[in-house]
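Fill in residues.
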């Protein structure tokens, strides 16, 4: 007979059933207490809680492993590449802008030094001296904080008077002195001529040339018979084999060749170029290629008359493309994109582009051409 279930069933349990249930009831486990009189605690008691695994899979309780998939890795690399491609031109442009600012500052310092020289001697320095003499860059050394270097120019040495002092210790020190003021930061490469750059070594390279004018000025005397710079229409004139001290009155003591002054610039100081940038020309592109910094160390042709170390002409254009052995290294140029910095005769610095109209370029290259040039036109 099956007894009905429910509360009534529990009321009819016998005493034996209650005794059996009491004997098989789970014991209540309480934490052991530490005896206050002893330092030995009782063994830790169980809390009576039992954890039961609900899954029989051996890895069910482990966390998933984190990481990149191959596709995710390729996407990250592609994003980084795009970011570098976008940022690199901006970084390069910022660096070039900083170099241009430094170049402009060099020209400002040079322009101020020439004005200080003019204030002292009431004349402009000679652009270049023939043979192996110094140039206008040497004359303005005291005005750019290099008086100690200017003091060793060997004006009184016997070899200097004849242009044969290229082996003296003073000559070597001047020829190899690379001053940051005469070096454009964008002109990379060695600061001093070495064996890989041509047959002339141990000469510091110059980034800035004086304006000899807008006339056709050929560099090689042996081709034309004359350089023409003695009567150029720029601010700097060449004095052939003129070995003299700074501030002398006449070239070769000839009164018909007095030095120029700012009063000679009748076109206006703000409309006439005084100093411009130039860039080094590889020897493979021309027969004689060098622009030296302080000393007119000339070994270029048999006549010893190459004034291109110190002077340039605006006749040939800006960043002129050269042909092999053209002997015309008198043009202005720069390592900046699209143009060149020039210091005007009033000391200001302008940036003129390669696309500047030829008539305007020739006008700002002459000191007395009577051209009318608007400041906004260049």
């Amino acid at each position: 007979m099956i007894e009905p279930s429910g509360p009534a069933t529990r009321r009819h349990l016998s005493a034996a059933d209650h005794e059996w249930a009491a004997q098989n009831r789970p014991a209540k486990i309480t934490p052991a207490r530490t005896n206050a009189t002893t330092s030995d605690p009782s063994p830790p008691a169980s809390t009576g809680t039992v954890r039961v695994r609900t899954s029989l899979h051996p890895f069910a309780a482990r966390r998933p492993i984190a990481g990149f998939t191959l596709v995710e890795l390729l996407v990250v690399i592609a994003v980084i590449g795009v970011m570098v491609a976008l940022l690199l031109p901006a970084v390069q442009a910022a660096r070039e802008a900083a170099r241009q600012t430094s170049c402009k500052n060099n020209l400002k310092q040079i322009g101020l030094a020439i004005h200080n020289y003019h204030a002292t001697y009431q004349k402009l320095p000679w652009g270049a001296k023939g043979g192996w003499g110094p140039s206008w860059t040497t004359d303005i050394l005291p005005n750019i904080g290099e008086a100690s270097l200017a003091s060793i120019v060997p004006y009184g040495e016997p070899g200097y008077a004849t242009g044969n002092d290229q082996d003296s210790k003073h000559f070597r020190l001047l020829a190899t002195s690379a001053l940051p003021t005469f070096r454009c930061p964008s002109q990379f490469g060695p600061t001093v001529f070495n064996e890989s750059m041509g047959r002339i070594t141990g000469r510091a390279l110059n980034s800035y040339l004086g304006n000899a004018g807008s006339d056709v000025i050929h560099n090689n005397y042996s081709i034309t018979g004359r350089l023409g710079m003695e009567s150029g229409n720029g601010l700097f004139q060449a004095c052939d084999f003129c070995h003299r001290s700074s501030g002398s009155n006449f070239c070769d003591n000839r009164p018909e060749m007095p030095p120029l002054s700012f009063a000679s610039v009748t076109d206006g100081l703000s409309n006439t170029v005084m100093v411009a940038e130039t860039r080094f020309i590889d020897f493979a592109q021309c027969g004689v290629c060098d622009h030296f910094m302080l000393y007119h160390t000339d070994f270029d042709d048999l006549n010893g008359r190459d004034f291109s170390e110190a002077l340039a002409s605006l006749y040939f254009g800006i960043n002129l493309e050269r042909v092999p052995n053209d002997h015309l290294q008198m043009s202005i140029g720069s390592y900046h994109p699209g143009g060149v910095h020039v210091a005007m005769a009033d000391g200001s610095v302008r940036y003129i582009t390669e696309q500047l109209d030829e008539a305007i370029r020739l006008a700002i290259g002459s000191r007395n051409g009577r051209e009318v040039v608007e400041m906004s036109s260049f």
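The mean pLDDT is 71.
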